[in-house]
Design goal:
Radius of gyration: 17 Å
Strand content: over 45%
Helix content: under 10%
Number of strands: 8
Structural class: mainly beta
Shape: elongated
Number of helices: 0
Largest sheet: 4 strands, antiparallel
Order of helices and strands: EEEEEEEE
Mean pLDDT: 92
Amino acid sequence: MLADDNGAKISFVEKSHDFGTIKEANGPVSYEFEFKNVGNEPLVILSARASCGCTRPEYPEKPIKPGEKGKIKITYNPAGRPGEFDRKIKIQTNDKNRRPVLKITGVVIPQNNGEE
């Protein structure tokens, strides 16, 4: 059976980001994942769900036309979460062939511990 070449197709530049070492005292950190609609119909992002309430995704609400780019901004709040973190964000779109999962990682230095 041949793959269906019609429809919206999402393609990410990268699907993971390592924040490295961040300080809890500095507050939330954000990263924008860039994507492109490489299909031939408008791409609609239906939802972006994080694995934890400490992670907040923001995504375009308007359809992304074929050939156009968009960004999904992920904000991680390190408050009260010292140590390593590894969070996944599940993206749901009208691209019936892909269910992308984005990932952010890093290490949080506790607020009361200025030295590592």
